[in-house]
Write a structure and sequence with these properties.
By secondary structure, the protein is α+β, with helices and mostly antiparallel strands. Helix content is about 35%, strand content about 25%.
Length: about 240
């Protein structure tokens, strides 16, 4: 089906190019300009797909005619898209965990083993461990801060025991008592390369109900500030376990 395009504006005085159009159906902005085709130029573009095109436009066009206000529509992605983020991030992947427990942990056979024996098993051939080990060995950083209650829930004790397995493949696992995390929101999220946030939504039974991607710079900075505050106060998992 053809798009319904509305002419937005142009700074051109002669031929109408470059210009902006708005897709009335999706709200997307269509940028009309001079194609960028030089192979050396294209190799410098980040996140540039094989089926994508690049155009060059004057900065004034976006300043004068780009949208100034918008109502953000949450971008909800599936699990497969979310998992790919852990393979494609370039520098850092970091998580804040704030819940008293997670349904996915309670369904894990390792959790049942922990409840029965007080210790969780470690399988280095699990896909998560294989990928994270490859990422950290490539020089990338992966970490988390977990907020713990006093007394800790069974789920939190399981994750504290399991932290040694995460650390074995290069994850930096740290902890923070909830009373020391009063300035942090209750949001649970991953932040990748300080440019993209995956905000996890849960129901009352601790099941993930949606994964929302956020790329707006101001919002990403807000989550980066949460990360920095959490990291400043948190302590390594083994040090935390010794005082628990």
């Amino acid at each position: 089906m053809a798009r319904q395009l509305r002419f937005t504006g142009t700074d051109s005085k002669v031929d109408g190019c470059p210009a902006l159009h708005t897709d009335e159906g999706t709200g997307e902005i269509i940028v009309q300009g001079t194609p960028v085709t030089d192979p050396e130029d294209l190799t410098q573009l980040q996140h540039f797909g094989a089926d994508e095109a690049a155009v060059a436009v004057p900065r004034e066009l976006l300043v004068n005619w780009g949208p100034k206000e918008m109502e953000r529509v949450p971008e909800i992605v599936d699990r497969a898209t979310f998992r790919r983020l852990f393979e494609t991030f370039q520098h850092t992947a970091w998580r804040l965990e704030t819940r008293r427990g997670y349904a996915s942990d309670r369904e894990d056979p390792d959790f049942k083993t922990f409840v029965a024996t007080g210790s969780s098993p470690f399988d280095p051939n699990e896909p998560w461990f294989i990928n994270i080990k490859a990422q950290t060995e490539a020089g990338k950083r992966v970490g988390r801060v977990r907020v713990a209650d006093r007394p800790m829930t069974t789920e939190q004790r399981f994750l504290l025991d399991y932290a040694r397995h995460n650390a074995a493949v290069g994850e930096d696992i740290r902890y923070l008592w909830r009373e020391d995390a009063a300035d942090l929101p209750a949001e649970d999220f991953w932040i990748f390369d300080s440019r993209l946030v995956a905000l996890l939504h849960f129901d009352e039974a601790d099941n993930i109900t949606g994964i929302e991607l956020i790329t707006e710079p101001a919002e990403v900075v807000r989550y980066a500030m949460m990360r920095d505050a959490a990291m400043h106060h948190a302590v390594p998992f083994d040090q935390f376990a010794a005082t628990e």
